């Protein structure tokens, strides 16, 4: 089948997905399954290989992510229940002072969201925004934008977040370089899209503060210290980073090297972090075994739909790879002279704008560019840089087909036009900064 037909299949598949989700109001999981089958048929795949590709795509994606999401959800929930995340937020607000409270909220969102899903982090931290806005008589926009920027930057670029973890695994990127490049992208993006843009747009857009239903209760006597709280949040990052840094100074194929590889794997790192917060924080603070079990069970329940949607995106990605659509489109982009780092950002952004989901945009783009990256023989650092480019593209231009768009309006009280002027621009700044950081990092390796 010629390249134009295969490229047309890819474009048509994404447009069909948009129609099924937005117009036909079909559940996104079912829509992804149907579109995947359609893409396989129209690209000329044998029917027997379509079902095998669907199985491979689901298993290959969830085989890694399920463990990460389950352990990460438990880790974050225990940190919240013990007051560790509240302690970090309270300490940052106190340290920065009222005039720079918007910077504190951005950093709090970035740090506290590390072990949490995006929507969970917003639910847990949004009350702090309203409390600070009331205390400082400030514009809620000036306080809300930095918090959302911090949470969004962590969710998009920082391990152990599900999306960046998934990208690193699918791209075969070096996890240590993924952390390093992701930190630069997240911090720069949070500062520009959060406090700086928030301060600018708050002078032009404002709305009444909604009623605060669940104000955070920050009681110092019931919270762990700031140092301990921060150390626990960063624990899995440190363990993963040890592998990359330590392996450079240790002889390969030795016992020490193998132990560093084992301890620094995301599975092991997050499991160790979970055990540390359970036995080093929860139990010493008087939590019973039953309470801890209840918290862990409650934490993993919301993960089901996230895993299903991510697995469905993996199915679509695998169909694109196995059908030849991915290689054809990737070769067409390279043949057109578009640099691979730019192509990763542009493709991810295009899919994101059309169908809304950052996770699906990432997985679809991986399916399109993976054949090209394999041919180029890139190293782990270069693949990590490309993963950050994809992550950046996957969050730009958020609009009405993105759940985050409506989440922002729901929690802040903004209408649709106000959300476009604030949330959409903030996400675009954040994603563009991440994409540029990834492109620069790719050229340096």
UniProtKB/TrEMBL annotation:
Keywords per UniProt: Membrane, Transmembrane, Transmembrane helix
GO function terms (MF aspect): gluconate transmembrane transporter activity
Top-level taxonomic group: Bacteria
Transmembrane stretches, start-end: 5-22, 28-47, 59-79, 103-132, 144-163, 175-201, 222-242, 262-282, 294-316, 328-351, 358-378, 384-408, 420-444
GO cellular component: plasma membrane
Keyword Membrane tagged: yes
InterPro entries: Glcn_transporter
Stated name of the protein: Gluconate transporter
Species in which this protein is naturally found: Hafnia alvei FB1
């Amino acid at each position: 089948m010629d390249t134009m037909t295969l490229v047309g299949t890819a474009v048509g598949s994404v447009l069909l997905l948009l129609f099924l989700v937005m117009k036909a109001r079909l559940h996104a999981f079912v829509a992804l399954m149907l579109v995947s089958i359609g893409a396989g048929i129209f690209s000329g795949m044998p029917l027997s290989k379509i079902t095998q590709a669907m199985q491979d795509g689901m298993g290959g994606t969830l085989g890694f992510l399920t463990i990460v999401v389950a352990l990460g959800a438990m880790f974050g929930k225990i940190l919240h229940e013990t007051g560790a995340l509240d302690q970090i937020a309270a300490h940052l607000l106190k340290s920065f002072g009222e005039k720079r409270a918007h910077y504190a909220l951005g950093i709090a969102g970035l740090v506290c969201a590390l072990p949490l899903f995006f929507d969970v982090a917003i639910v847990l931290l949004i009350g702090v925004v309203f409390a600070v806005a009331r205390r400082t008589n400030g514009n809620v926009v000036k306080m809300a934008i930095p918090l959302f920027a911090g949470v969004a930057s962590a969710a998009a670029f920082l391990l152990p977040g599900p999306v960046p973890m998934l990208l690193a695994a699918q791209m075969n990127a070096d996890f240590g370089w993924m952390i390093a490049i992701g930190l630069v992208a997240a911090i720069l993006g949070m500062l520009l899209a959060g406090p700086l843009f928030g301060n600018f747009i708050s002078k032009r857009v404002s709305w009444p503060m909604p009623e605060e239903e669940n104000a955070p209760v920050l009681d110092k006597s019931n919270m762990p210290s700031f140092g301990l709280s921060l150390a626990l949040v960063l624990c899995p990052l440190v363990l993963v980073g040890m592998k990359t840094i330590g392996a450079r100074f240790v002889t390969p194929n030795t016992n020490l090297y193998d132990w560093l590889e084992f301890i620094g794997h995301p599975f092991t790192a997050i499991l160790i972090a979970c055990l540390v917060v359970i036995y080093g924080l929860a139990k010493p603070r008087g939590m019973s075994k039953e309470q801890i079990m209840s918290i862990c069970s409650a934490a993993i329940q919301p993960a089901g739909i996230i895993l299903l949607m991510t697995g469905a995106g993996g199915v679509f990605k695998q169909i694109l790879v196995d059908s030849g659509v991915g290689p054809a489109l990737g070769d067409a982009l390279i043949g057109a002279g578009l640099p691979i780092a730019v192509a990763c950002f542009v493709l991810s952004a295009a899919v994101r704008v059309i169908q809304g989901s950052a996770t699906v945009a990432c997985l679809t783009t991986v399916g399109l560019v993976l054949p090209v990256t394999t041919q180029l023989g890139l190293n782990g650092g270069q693949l990590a840089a490309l993963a950050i480019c994809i992550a950046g593209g996957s969050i730009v231009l958020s609009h009405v087909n993105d759940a985050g768009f409506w989440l922002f309006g729901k929690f802040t009280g903004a209408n649709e036009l106000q959300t476009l002027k604030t949330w959409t621009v903030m996400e675009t700044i954040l994603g563009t900064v991440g994409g540029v950081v990834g492109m620069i990092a790719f050229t340096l390796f």
